[in-house]
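Incident log, structure service

09:12 report received: a user says their structure output differs between two submissions of the same chain.
09:20 pulled the input from the user's history:
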Amino acid sequence: MSQQLLKIGLIGLDTSHVMAFTELLNSADHPYHVPGGWVVAAFPGGSPDFELSASRVQGYTDKLSADYGICIMDSIEEVAEASDVLMLESVDGRIHLEQFSKLAPFRKPVFIDKPFAVNSRDAKSISALAKHHGIPIMSCSALRYAEGLTTKLRGGGDSPIIGMDCYGPMALQSTQPGLFWYGIHMVDMLYSGMGKGCLQVSSVHNGDHDFVTGLWKDGRVGTIRGNRRGNTQFGAVIHRENSSEAVDVYAHQKPYYASLLEQIMEMFRSKLSPIDVEETLEIIRFIEAANESRATGRTVFL
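09:34 re-ran on a clean worker, output below:
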């Protein structure tokens, strides 16, 4: 292993993302290998009251150890000490603040996988901790960097985006309320095109669907359609002043995890996040507001 490679530590081994990222980093013969880093250590974590966490953590822990020789450690602090940079991968957004609080004193760059947090209070606390310790942080869904989406966003020439409609599967999990579980993918896609500046959110839903409308301060409108029946693929329509264009996030063979990982590695090297933390905070507030509207039927101001 080259001395030039960044030593990467993983926190939370209860998501398939840890396997995807480790394969892309540690397998030099992978067709979409992302150079520059090497996963060296990990802390399993896991949330006993969240079935999709508790049932997966041991399997991913064993596989990372057996297939890649990752050193499995007993604490978050041990992983932070052994690593140059960190990826907080715990699937349970409720515990991200607690885990980040243990990482922050080490002053090392951190990628926080979605969801950044499951409420604005925790999100603001994470941001404040990062600022206090001078830590670059980045958080998003991998769908934000799907080649099919980024290509369309770059390809509009001088025609500005006046709106965007995003859709995808939206399963619900009680521990990750409303849109925080799968809806966050679509919110991240929406913000990749619209940017920050949402003023208000309204939501309607039934057993099969959620539909969320966001009104931006400049008059633009963005929507999210979450499906629990029928279409299970992600996609979007970008509306520009001179055209509307469908987005196929599966149009390219390159996996969106590889595209995201390239951005993460650049953040680790430059210590500059490609996503403004204020946008990340607004995304959390957008989801929070959508959930409030979902519960009350009323428009919620951000």
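09:41 both user submissions now match this output. Likely a transient worker issue. Closing.
09:42 reviewer note: The first strand starts at residue 6 and ends at 11. DSSP finds ten helices and 13 strands in the chain.
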